[in-house]
Amino acid sequence: MNYPGPQRKVIIDTDAGVDDAVALFLALAAHKDPKSPFEIIAITAVLGNTTVDNVCRNVFTVLDSAGISNIPVFCGADNPLVQPFIREGSPFFGEDGFGGVHSLPNLPVTKQDRKLEEESAPLALVRLAREFQDELTIVALGPCTNLAIAINIDPNFVKNVKELYIMGGNIHGVGNIRPSIEFNFFVDPESAFVVLSSSWNQKIVMVPLEACKLAMSSMEWRRQVLGSIKSRQVELLNLLEEKLVHVYEKQYGSWCSCDAVCMAVLLKPSITSKSSTNYCTVELQGALTRGQVVVDYPQRTGNPHNVTIIEQIYLPELEQMLLSTFHESTFIQ
Ligand SMILES: [Ca+2]
Predict the structure, then answer these.
(1) What is the distance in A from the centroid of ligand 1 to the CA of 202?
(2) Which of 36, 53, 58, 154 is exposed most, by the fewest CB atoms within 10 A?
(3) Options 15, 19, 64, 259, the catalytic residue
(4) Is 15 considered catalytic here?
(5) In which domain, by residue range, is 75 found?
(6) CATH code where residue 55 lies
(7) 77 Cα: distance to centroid of ligand 1 (angstroms)
(8) Is residue 110 in some structural domain?
């Protein structure tokens, strides 16, 4: 695949998550391609879809599946910044975030002897942002907790980072975990607030829930086209989503990986068909809206625009990226 743009050092902050796994595979394909300008220099784990320990294990499973061993993994926050996150009911991606696959005897991955880095994720973010000053891209696929901690412990962190891509929040009050709240911002509203309130000088690109809902593939495409590719990565993905495809079918009638939409926007900017800039912040008090993004559509705050909002992408291009990523030749082992 052709990846446009300048050389980029990338950190992926993730709460993996089946959704994140799809995005990680997209990014790992770019990392592995010698012609690509993308180099993943770290993966940092944060709570969200499951506990941070499960997230670390899930990241290792994806790396094992891709046969990639040169990316360090850092464990981060297991609690939100201020208020505890109380899980209710059954998590969307299962208790372990990976549909319970770790209990399967024949997981299609070649397990490597991997160890977590000793440094914690927020400290690693601070250090790497200093080390790769003005070169570093961060992609946040989970709650913003690690980022908010990094911002709070280093006044220069935001300045050092070149750009931040966030999957999270919403722009029209459409929610998934609550009527008007998106999951990542719901888990840790204060962290999202800290991130959006910092002086990024328009370096934030946000992929809200609404953009993902406009990028849903048919269940037929998921099952018959993506799902029928003969590769170990699709074999794994099908196992991860074995119980989930019925949930997608019932709830949405279609399939999407929100995190993959965000990753695709970074890897291939031309995939964006509609975007805008605006001032965005996060509601922290509302009984029904804590964690909802507030967009200053009428320009009443006088605050400068702080976010580039991705409103829509070209779905056929995303599907093509997914097909070429999950093709049998991408991660030959
Ligand atoms: Ca995620």
Answers:
(1) 23
(2) 53
(3) 15
(4) yes
(5) 8-325
(6) 3.90.245.10
(7) 14
(8) yes
